[in-house]
Specification:
three-stranded antiparallel sheet; globular; about 35% helix; alpha+beta; two-stranded antiparallel ribbon
Length: about 250
């Protein structure tokens, strides 16, 4: 009988959680290098903002193909990334300051918000200044159809406050602004659902629309991995539950 790579990745994720709980309070090593306590100030080099769907250069065009905020998630890869994430007690986040994360950057006349609206929308029209003048959107989290851009907000799957609680405490302002504007972590959703999600992680919030669970969890794990952010035990359990709904494989074994 052949080996099921998805099941193997899930088993690795569970093993990683068990090991992390045993080693709580001590340094450990993952594929990302040494992992230090959340209260410390790690020296890391953050990645450049993702350029998926041509969001960083030129005038973007909306095709309606990115309702999940980018290419379809690979569930097997998501399990592998989850297994690589350090699991430890979350920081309090008491030092979080929204002003340190800046706002939407503008490049070549288009702000990050405008680019995400164009990427995630259907039949989007814009003025010469890139301002969205028409279109329609499907809010993936709740399945709601939104007929105007005024009813859309841009969600950070991993919220800046959550990033602060899980390893971003020592980042520079430039690193925070880069994270804030990374399109791979952004999704156009209804204003109502964005408000209900707030800065919660998958232990405390999940999309009301069950069909969104797999894509949300896979993208969340990818962002945490890209930025070398940790998860706590409850967060891990929430992600496992969501990833178990992905079509590539049944329940965790």
């Amino acid at each position: 009988m052949g080996t099921n790579p998805t099941r193997h990745a899930r088993a690795a994720a569970t093993a990683a959680l068990t090991a992390a709980l045993v080693l709580t309070g001590t340094a450990c090593t993952t594929g990302l290098g040494p992992v230090t306590a959340l209260g410390s100030t790690p020296v890391i080099t953050l990645p450049s903002a993702a350029t998926g769907a041509d969001l960083t250069h030129g005038h973007p065009t909306g095709s309606g193909e990115a309702e999940q905020g980018g290419p379809p998630a690979d569930p097997t890869h998501a399990w592998e990334l989850l297994a690589a994430l350090p699991v430890r007690v979350e920081d309090t986040g008491a030092h979080y300051d929204r002003d340190q994360w800046g706002g939407w950057r503008t490049r070549e006349g288009c702000s990050t918000r405008e680019r995400v609206l164009i990427r995630d929308g259907h039949d989007v029209t814009t003025g010469e200044d890139c301002a969205v003048t028409g279109g329609r959107w499907r809010s993936v989290y709740d399945g709601q159809s939104v007929p105007t851009a005024d009813g859309i907000e841009i969600d950070h799957r991993v919220a800046p406050a959550e990033a602060t609680r899980s390893g971003a405490r020592g980042w520079t302002r430039e690193q925070r602004v880069r994270f804030f504007n990374d399109p791979a972590n952004l999704l156009a959703v209804s204003a109502h659902i964005n408000g209900s999600k707030s800065d919660d992680d998958p232990a405390r919030w999940r999309p009301p629309h069950r069909d969104a669970w797999c894509g949300y969890a896979a993208a969340y794990v990818a962002t945490k991995h890209t930025y070398r952010l940790a998860i706590d035990a409850d967060e891990h359990a929430g992600l496992v539950a969501l990833l178990n709904t992905c079509p590539a494989g049944g329940e965790q074994r």
